[in-house]
Design goal:
alpha+beta; Pemi-like Protein 1, Chain: D; two-stranded antiparallel ribbon; 2 strands
Length: 81
């Protein structure tokens, strides 16, 4: 496919090329001049999905101190030995 460059310097990326490269709206296009041609690399945009709740709470209640966690880990290791 051929396309004309607009007055603003824009071109259209062919649909087949977009589909082959999985180019989606919001991706970042990195342009590199390589000798006599232009190379374009597409980087996925950062996701906007929340990760809230992705990690399950292991023990409900108040958080333990570092000393308490170390003591509990030491007892667990001693019990396995």
């Amino acid at each position: 496919m051929t396309t004309h460059v607009t007055a603003r310097g824009q071109i259209t990326i062919d649909r087949a090329a977009r589909e082959a490269l999985s180019v989606k709206p919001g991706m970042i296009a990195v342009q590199v001049v390589a000798q006599d041609h232009l190379e374009v690399y597409f980087i996925p945009a950062k996701h906007r999905r929340s990760l809230f709740g992705a990690l399950a709470v292991q023990q409900p209640g108040t958080p333990e101190t570092w000393e308490t966690a170390q003591e509990r880990a030491s007892r667990s290791i001693a019990a396995e030995a």
